[in-house]
Write a structure and sequence with these properties.
The structure is a homotetramer. Chain A is α/β, with parallel strands linked by helices and about 375 residues long. The first copy, chain A, is built from 13 helices and 14 strands. The interface between B and C is medium-sized, with 12 and 12 residues.
């Protein structure tokens, strides 16, 4: 079966996110990178396209040109799906145009910069036939998929406690210097939206909590930290979560956890057991049961769920990393496109992105109103 | 120099807390267990005393008899310090009598069952010459002492984030059965005070946060979980902490984290680095620094602080456990008694116990008033 | 700059080694898979080529046809390098033809099935301009590269002890059943050469010991295990190593270490420190120094060597896996081809493959002669 | 029941081994330290006795006096068992006298300085009623006991591979300096016997291999390292082990593994599974089974063997250390004395010590004869 033709917006030069998406797209050999707009400077874009071995005619000046010209191509030549890797504020207008012109979309998170924009995209997609993925990258790890399968199968019983942590330290060297913090685009609401820490990493933790548990957060109470009065963006926060009447949780996120790299952890406890996972050691899933030995599940074993095994390409003992996780998401998108099934569970959806935007708004709102409970609506 | 004569209240038969205290008392050979009341049944108490090799005349019917008769002995024979290992509601009356009669006291936590009782003890001790220790056992670990020393010396700079977790799962098999939960003394306010989870383990985490950081919690906001309407005691909770204007923290405690044994962790981040520790692997202290390799400090090395080294008896590579930690606290008490110095920093004090009682009251109060901020006063 | 045109021999259908090489070839976007022979059945080969999106005219019936027709193409269209992923006994004849016709070669290990064949290839390459890599996959991990850099820079001083382990358990369920063991191709000398365990995984450990230490094994003494008299191939073994007069080492390999997955470890000690690494947790390198905290180095930090950093594509905290390791080897080959430099240190060479063949022969010989010392010659 | 009266030879002042034995003896409250000879200088010995709270009359000038005077005491006052903590060369004459006078003996390892002496002790004990323990300390860990129980119960089936490692780095800073190495008593054969590394730590590994597996080493082939010609004692070595026809093993020991503390590991594989343990993390036992999740067993759980549980005093999650391990050995000795059962399996015996001496002799002999196989005889 022919590969899916993929266009890319942004991610040129040495962009890290660019490499991540391209490796992921190539990993299962379901996509063929066909064209795109890699840079606002068209010459740079052309050079980059050449590096990728693309036909010059498929490297466009801008999205509008790309859409127009691709639509003139015969269907079996035309770009089918487009990855949006541009700065956050461009996600919305680009995704909107792509949806309106019948393309499938793979969009980096956060989906948009406001909840309102996310709602509009959601409405457009509902009426379209497009597959729309939001790349919450970490959901593609085989052991996260195993965790999701086990919880769905009742392995840990009724959930009674959900605890997610996402700690980084990268903003510490910037935040204590007035000049540096005011020059950082991540701390500029014009460029990054209303939240830094919750918007950037808190949403990953929020999405993961809902993704693996299969439960929805009903209300939240947030306590954020800005450290300096002149800093307009949160750089640390704790959010109390209520999933159901007696199912409580807590989400902790920080960018001032000095020395932490990308310490994202998930702990979920039910009345029959617990499951724990750490992003920095993604190939280990810990199953806790009363009066039994701790079990450490690792990828690739026959006793794992099909959903998990589908995401592992080599036998046990061959470590997988972040590329594999993103590769699994791209594979999920490819299958959805080929099977024409909109919601498969194998990739994070526009709906997940919308929930994320709602979470950001409610969290900042709870904090600013004095740490009060606020209901999640979407 | 002669050993300190130690009396013990409770802890007879196969009491676990009894073994822990006796091993700790013997460990540094500073104490000699001399007498006590090990059981309300005097015959059982006598049998137990025999097992310990005690003189029958020093095994008493009750505390009153013990105090009266010991005071009749010459000073160089008399019991000098007494460990209180009885059920919680007896801590207060026993400690009060002991203080009023000039004995040093080593009391299990929680110090009392109400904040009011704790305040009274505090006032009595302030006027006495007695040393009074509350056995927050985990503070005696060499790597906790190292953590405290490093923070005090500025190794991680100004603290900006404090995160403590204490997760257990032991109450899960009881809580979902109406008969079992109503028959558990831990869930009976008459016997355990107003809080189960926060009172039993949350206070350990609270004490540790203040102990290692050298900072005081100023206010708290708590969200507790009782799971069932007929259950009067919290079994899980998250508490937002405010240490200073911009120093925030979070304390998480649970007894329904199914499958967890005694998963108590401390993570503290400053503007110059971070420090992390886990009780179940107590011989490892993790030092995180920007753009440096992660450092794993282990006990017994010459580069550690004197305070840490004092608590390690063997060369590096010989694992220490919970007995060693309690042994260090007993040693700290012994030194305080011998040196006649009331507050040395080497053992948790009555003041720490009082803070703990205050924390329990404020936490329950915050939760019951709808998860609002409440100031710590003591 | 244009991508290098890559041909592939074998690795079709769901071959695991096929996926590993293709992902690696694509990872840094230096290669373009252009053609090959993926299956002895030409129809299957054509189908597979279609799956990869290849031009049918570049999917050949056999190697001879491929060489002939590719050489008729203009130089800027012609396949430049070829990956050999076929069964072991085909490595030699294929590599020979490719070298003789001016192609660069990337060959799976073991290089050949006999030492004699390896020597012939070595002589041919010496006279050619071809780059020749043997894919000792694990040498491409960033932390292995860091280990190599640190040892070369004297970080651990003069080496005095080298210890490598490669334990797997996969042959246990086969070996104890006479029918199963006689039906396994890995245990058939016709198909696998003279050694199973040492040939398959012992050579990895041997190569790694020499690669990271920069030292050469001078002589060996081996004790192998065959478990059953009718089993002609070793499935476990320990090899004493002598690197220099007083530099001793030991290599342990097993395929009957039941339950082990791919437990390959490297421990090297010098007079100034030690370095340790485990393949199943490849992103951690442990540096041991006397009277210093244990240091755990992780990929992507600025303080690492350039050689290590070149192999890491994302910031710290984004785990890398086996694909990344192989990707780095392919990248090393690409740079060598582009720069026309034969031996760069950035990929394992034909010489390494030759050493590996020699090691296999000497090891089996030492064992069969009664566990005596034998000199390595090549 | 009355405590067993214990005498101690050596271990005075701040002797580390002294603390270890006293804490262990006190831990289960089965022994009462009654007297001894703590120092060759009688005044120092008396001072130390006072520190322990002993009666001056039980602090003796030398062993002869101690034996003579104790034997004059009534049986219910007399010292029953004696711990020998003196330098190695004194073990033999002291143990001999004690056995000949009817005392039970607890002797530090190595049992003697020559195999011949060990044989003599063995013969004397065979005719006596004395319990004789050799303190291979690490055998007392609860998870080692669990490992032993599981192997005995067939949990991992027939053993096919045994791998033990004991790596330390402490001799590195001494060995490269001619003056330092010649001044170290550990490297003086007069004081330490014929072997340093194998004698000191290799014997631990050897004993452990036999203890947990229940198998006996039949022959060995050793390759030792002395590093310098003027150094008379091995400081590193690898020993090939043969347990039965096809059961092979390997023992690695080093004191020049720079930076290692006390890295003693045991890996045993059978045809039904594998078991692994590390001394520096003694509370974790790893059970490997084909196609099952890795299991991590921890102390104190009801599903563990009685033998393991007997050695754990607190509930799961309360870490145990080296004192607990030695405490369990002392407890085993106490039970043997009380029950008058000579060989209970709960403590290492004189026979184990004898095997250890034999192992040292054969190992050095194998090495000196050119790394040849030598049969173990005792």
């Amino acid at each position: 079966m022919a590969k899916i033709r993929l266009g890319i917006l942004g991610g040129g030069n040495d962009s890290l996110i660019g490499i991540l998406h391209r490796v992921a797209a190539n990993m299962f050999e379901q996509f063929e990178i066909t064209g795109g707009v890699f840079n606002v400077d068209h010459d740079k874009s052309l050079n980059f396209g050449e590096r990728l071995g693309l036909d010059r005619s498929r490297v466009y000046k801008n999205l509008e040109e790309m859409i127009r010209q691709e639509k003139e191509l015969p269907e079996d030549k035309r770009i089918q799906a487009v990855s949006i890797l541009t700065p956050n504020f461009l996600h919305y207008p680009m995704a909107k145009q792509l949806l309106e012109n019948g393309f499938h979309v793979i969009c980096e998170k956060p989906l948009t910069t406001t909840l309102q924009e996310a709602r509009i995209l959601n409405e457009i997609q509902a009426e379209s036939n497009s597959i729309f993925a939001v790349t919450y990258t970490y959901t593609g790890y085989p052991m996260i998929r195993q965790m999701k399968s086990m919880i769905a199968n009742g392995e840990i019983g009724s959930i009674q406690k959900i605890d997610v942590q996402y700690y980084q330290g990268w903003i510490n060297p910037l935040i204590h210097d007035k000049d540096k913090r005011s020059a950082t685009w991540r701390l500029d609401p014009e460029k990054s939206g209303i939240s830094c820490c919750i918007g950037d990493i808190g949403t990953h933790a929020f999405n993961m909590a809902e993704y693996v548990s299969g439960m929805k957060v009903e209300k939240i109470l947030a306590d954020l930290n800005y450290l300096y009065e002149d800093n307009p963006m949160d750089i640390d926060g704790t959010v109390l979560l209520r999933f159901g009447e007696n199912v409580k949780g807590v989400l902790r996120a920080s960018q001032i956890a000095t020395g932490e790299e990308n310490n994202f952890t998930v702990q979920i406890y039910g009345d029959k057991g617990g499951l724990k996972w750490e992003q920095e050691n993604p190939n280990y899933l810990y199953l806790l049961k009363e009066d039994q030995a701790l079990q450490v599940l690792k990828p690739g074993h026959a006793f794992l769920s099909d959903f998990s095994l589908e995401g592992t390409k080599l036998p046990p003992g061959h470590p997988e990393g972040i590329f594999d996780s993103m590769g699994n998401i791209y594979y999920g998108v490819a299958m959805a496109i080929k099977d024409k099934v909109k919601y498969t569970g194998a990739y994070p959806t526009l709906g997940d992105g919308l929930r994320g935007m709602s979470f950001i708004e409610k969290t900042v709102s709870s904090h600013k109103q004095g740490n009060i409970w606020i209901k999640m609506q979407d």
